[in-house]
Amino acid sequence: MKESAATHLKTSRIIKHTTDNNDFEIWEQPGTGHKALHSLSRFAPGDRLDNFGARLKLQQPSYLSVQISADDHILLKPEYLQYMNHSCQPNALLDTREMEVRAITAIRPGDEITFFYPSTEWSMAQAFSCHCRSRHCLKYIQGAAYLSADILEYYYLADHIEEMLRERSLGDLFEEEPA
Ligand SMILES: [Zn+2]
Fold first, then answer.
1. pLDDT tier at 2 (50, 70, 90 boundaries)?
2. Is residue 2 part of a domain?
């Protein structure tokens, strides 16, 4: 969990990660040090890229953590997955029930792998300005808590985020009740 996907002028490939079936690389942009996870394999929508688990469990979100329930945050294992940047038009998702990363759209060799951070994060430790260049870029990313249901309905959301949204809308109903 770092920042948004950016256009890469010139990249040097630094770390290769091979799973049973697939190859990935972390590319670093010279100068900025901006890192991004790219696929060297091909995926169709719905394909599993990898499974993930917890390298470390945290009670509070951190710069690198992924939220997997209302109260639990983890550092991803395998570690290469933490180089997935955010995009407002993502090509992958983190399913926190099945604990797997899946393709949303077709992913071709060389493509950067991105996911929508508010799909797992309710309120992020570190908000950031997004420069993902998608047509519907939300510009400022700080978690699902800060986005309207109208925007979120366009996205796949993890179970706990769906649940927290339901609780939020119920809370709004009660607040609107006359005293
Ligand atoms: Zn964006």
1. low
2. no
Q: Cβ(63)–Cβ(1) under 8 Å? A: yes
Return the CATH number at 18: 2.170.270.10
| Centre of ligand 1 from the C-alpha of residue 130, in Å | 4
Q: What is the pTM of this model?
A: 0.89
3-state secondary structure string, 83-143?
Answer: HCEECCCCCEEEECCCCEEEECCCECCCCECEECHHHCCCCCCCCEECCCCCCCCCCEECC
* Residue 136 alpha carbon to ligand 1 centre in Å: 7
The boundaries of the domain holding residue 145 are 12-176
CA of 176 to the centre of ligand 1 (A): 32
What's the CA-to-centroid distance between 138 and ligand 1, angstroms?
Answer: 5
9 pLDDT tier (thresholds 50, 70, 90)? low
pLDDT in tens, 68-78: 999 999 999 99
